[in-house]
Amino acid sequence: MKFPGRRKIKHYFPVNTHNRFDMESSVFGQANTYICGIDQNLVDITARVDNSVLNDFGLDKGASQWLDNDQANRLYQFLKQHQLIEDQFAGGTIGNTLHNYSVLADDRSVQFGVMSQNIQVGDYAYRYLCNTSSKVDLTWLQPVDGPIGRCFALITEDGERTFGISPGFMNQLSPEFINETIIAESSGLILCAYTLADPTLPIYHSMVKAAQLAKKYEVPVILTLGTRGLVNAIKQPLIEFLNDYVTIAAMNEEEAEALTDEQDPLKASEYMLQWVDMVLLTAGAEGLYLSGYTENSMARETENPIRSGSISDFNRYEFSRPLLRSHCDEPLKIYSHISPYLGGPKNIKNTNGAGDGALAALIHDMAANYYHRQMLPTSSKHNKSWVTYSSLAQVCKYANRVSFEVLAQSSPRLSRALPEREMSLEDSYWDQ
């Protein structure tokens, strides 16, 4: 996948006699392609402590608990003073996805959220900026007079982890800082269900405003579901939001079950297609599923072995490209599944971020489609308003490979793009 980032021209598009363009054209490369998203900006802070520290700060060992700003500030200063901090790393599911997209696409993304107005070299806010790709545009962040979110992971000698979570000002994003033009000109808006949890918070209203603007300008909205507990807590409002605004829903098998009451990932995906146009579902060691709609008359049969599960012959049309259900005269549900790449890494220390990586790959393919449509609107690739540039099966391959890379490096944020040989535009890839 070589575009929309500025790469070598020969890698941009497959060219044939029916689909040519002037490679020296002055308009080449002028398409303004980016994605945007809203996140609860936070930093993961890891430190090794003894039990006395937990007692001094009133923390229950092995549990996750909320910390107020004062308690979090005192804990942070104590850890710094005694040089107990091992790592401070940017977190947040949307922040991770935007970062990974920009690494994969080598192109711009725009992040909405808050950031501490006063930043000192080496502190948590500074580390957040350091751990974020320079391609992620942070100029639209709202400055706040206080801390962003902090998640402390305190590890004692016996290996037990105790978590202290302080939201700081991460939920204070004002709707005034949601720029209409940025959303209107984007190729996708990424949101997380966490921001739907409390309607009294400013970030809730910012999220709703952004979703309304995206709907107004027909920008795809992508929503990640958060956790099983969150889905259970806001199930009905979440379903309404999915039905009203969301194009693509991304989740793991636990979140899908909480929302649909279906244990089988395939059946859960099918159930969710009543609310959204596409579903990305990661199922751990089982791999990942991608589901959506296509035009019945334009469906393409797979060349892979036909598979059956809770849905008979479910992957029969996985070589099809997805469409919005509203753009289909005769909608046909399509599904694809892929097992973990090479069986998964031999040693997995942390599964955090694998789903965010898969989602970044899907969004990259969507942005590539948007870019190509701007550059070559008369191409046969755009005879319909396809959601992605590639088929469902090929997007699965790409998402699977990126997930593997995240797991292999034990970090939710990619430190590099995929190897060059895996990113080239091979005809066999793009023909699907």
Explain the overall architecture.
The strands form 3 sheets. The chain has a 9-stranded mixed beta sheet with strand order 7-5-1-11-12-13-14-15-16, with helices on both faces. Helix 11 crosses helix 12 (392-408). By secondary structure, the protein is an alpha/beta fold. Residues 7-28 and 423-432 have low confidence and may be disordered. The chain has a single domain, classed as 3-Layer(aba) Sandwich (UDP-N-acetylmuramoyl-L-alanine:D-glutamate ligase). Helices cover 32% and strands 18% of the residues.
Question: In a few lines, what is going on in this structure?
Answer:
The protein is built from 14 helices and 16 strands. By secondary structure, it is an alpha/beta fold.
Given the structure, what is the number of helices?
14
Q: How many structural domains are formed by the residues? A: 1
- Estimated structural class: alpha/beta
The percent of residues in helical segments reads 25-40%
Protein name: Guanosine kinase
Domain Carbohydrate kinase PfkB: 133-292
GO molecular function: kinase activity
InterPro entries: Carb_kinase_PfkB-like (IPR052700), PfkB_dom (IPR011611), Ribokinase-like (IPR029056)
